[in-house]
Design a protein that fits this description.
Layout: E1 2-14, E2 19-31, E3 35-39, H1 46-54, E4 61-66, E5 78-81, H2 93-103, H3 109-121, H4 137-149, E6 155-159, H5 167-183, E7 187-191, H6 195-201, E8 204-208, E9 215-220, H7 230-233, H8 237-252
Parallel strand pairs: 3-7, 3-8, 5-6, 6-7
Antiparallel strand pairs: 1-2, 1-4, 8-9
Protein name: Spermidine/putrescine ABC transporter ATP-binding protein
GO molecular function: ATP binding; ATP hydrolysis activity
Keywords: ATP-binding, Nucleotide-binding, Transport
Length: about 260
């Protein structure tokens, strides 16, 4: 089943003197439960596309469908995880995770039970009364993800979610975040500059050209059961093949 459809998306930015095309006729679909990454040259419009999918900005033309619907209610089912964890240092982990539910006026006993289950499942329950400054960068990212999952989104959008972390932490947290996403069966779209990260985490990868961006390649990745987690996938024979293929496409479309 197709969870989200991106149909003929174009985006032009306007100023008093000029029009700048950013995205040109972008179309693709994401199967329910799949993890898709978007890569492309710097400044090609990856985050712009993610913001359009989230409903934060409107495209110049084209449409987004979630569960085959363009109804605005569908966009309330989207969870967005930004580059920084956006945790509030004066709130406890428990209060940070509940924040989205409070804003939506949707705190219920069952929602609190869901949050508790998530914190227990992903080894954060004992830190519920701590403050973000007392946690490592990787733990903060897990808290940010659980805060997003507390809203029970059907679609997760990740914008460079590990870019603020050091390399070793990025490798470890990618496994942890991937496990959470797959266990919770969330359809996910991630934007990243890191080719290796995209390959390690994704079922599919879309490569965008330089601006105005078009899709130059839509790849399906297959690793097999022996390479089911991001860190393990980096050891797979196909990993370097996929990496070289993406690198070649990006070089061919560089300025």
């Amino acid at each position: 089943m197709i969870k989200v459809e991106i149909n003929n998306i174009c985006m032009n930015y306007h100023s008093l003197t000029a029009e700048t095309p950013a995205l040109a006729d972008i179309s693709f679909g994401v199967q329910e439960g799949h993890f898709l990454s978007i890569v492309g040259p710097s400044g090609c419009g990856k985050s712009t596309l993610l913001n359009i999918i989230a409903g934060l900005i409107s495209p110049s033309s084209g449409e987004i469908k979630i569960n085959s619907s363009t109804d605005s209610v569908s966009f309330l089912k989207i969870g967005y995880m930004f580059q920084k964890d956006q945790l509030f240092d004066w709130l406890t982990i428990w209060d940070n995770v509940l924040l989205g539910l409070k804003i939506n006026h949707s705190i219920t006993a069952s929602n609190k039970e869901l949050v508790k289950r998530l914190l227990i499942s992903y080894n954060l329950w004992e830190f519920r009364d701590h403050h973000p400054r007392e946690l490592s960068g990787g733990m903060r990212q897990r808290v940010a993800l659980i805060r997003t999952l507390a809203l029970s989104p059907e679609l997760l959008l990740l914008d460079e979610p590990f870019s603020a972390l050091d390399y070793q932490t990025r490798l470890n947290i990618s496994d942890e975040v991937y496990e959470i996403i797959k266990k919770e069966k969330k359809t996910t779209i991630m934007v990243t500059h890191d080719i290796a990260e995209a390959i390690a985490m994704s079922d599919e990868i879309i490569i965008l050209s330089k601006r105005p961006a078009v899709i130059v390649k839509h790849m399906t990745l297959e690793f097999g059961e022996n390479f089911s987690y991001p860190l393990k996938r980096r050891e797979a024979p196909k990993f370097s093949i996929y990496f070289n293929e993406i690198w070649k496409e990006l070089n061919n479309n560089a300025d």
